Amino acid sequence: MTEVDVQSPEEFQREILDAEEPTVVVFWASWCPYCRAFKPHFDAKASESGARFAVVHLEDDDNPLWEAYRVDVVPSLAYFRDGTLAARKDGRLGRGLAPTELDAFLHQVLTA
Q: How would you list the strands of the sheet with 84-90, edge to edge?
């Protein structure tokens, strides 16, 4: 398992889009209570899996990654393969993402 932290568009390009390995990404922010509740489950799944995982920090509205990937709600999940967004699961406003939604997303993308 590889887990990387990404905070800028340059890091995103290098660590996600230019990566040779497919990567499961969670877009999140520390100020988001749903993200803080979701992150331990994401971390546990990342440590159990042989897949590559990344945490993309969207701490402020000025981060261009909000706009580039049209992230409206955090946490949101994305799966990148060969530099392309292959699958996505967005959180819901006022609810976030449930651990079962992460499990279903991982099953969808890692067994495809």
A: 2-6, 52-57, 23-28, 76-81, 84-90
